[in-house]
């Protein structure tokens, strides 16, 4: 019988625009098969986002300083727990 899925976090730097992607990989323990990847995108202030359906621009006020600080803390916490590779 398979155990519950193992979660693995990693951060990728994508492209020259400075987009960061936090990837949550759900791996089946024992088999090490990747079941699914969930992508959460974090963008720097004012970047244009390439969307298949439309072009969107994030307004500067949408990314507050506190959100950036929280992302930094999340990254540090992830490194301390060994979630990032």
Folded structure, characterized:
- With 85 residues, this protein is of the alpha+beta class.
- The chain has one domain.
- It has 1 helix and 5 strands; from the N terminus they run E-E-E-E-E-H.
- Strands 1-2-3 form a 3-stranded antiparallel beta sheet, with no helix packed on it. Strands 4-5 form a two-stranded antiparallel sheet.
- Strand 4 and strand 5 (55-57) form a beta hairpin.
- The radius of gyration is 16 Å and the shape is globular.
- Mean pLDDT is 49; it is low at 1-5, 30-49, 54-58 and 61-70.
Give a summary of the structure in a few sentences.
This protein is an alpha+beta fold and 85 residues long. It is built from 1 helix and 5 strands.
Which key terms come to mind for this protein?
single chain; 85 residues; alpha+beta; three-stranded antiparallel sheet; two-stranded antiparallel sheet; 1 helix; 5 strands; 39% strand; disordered N terminus
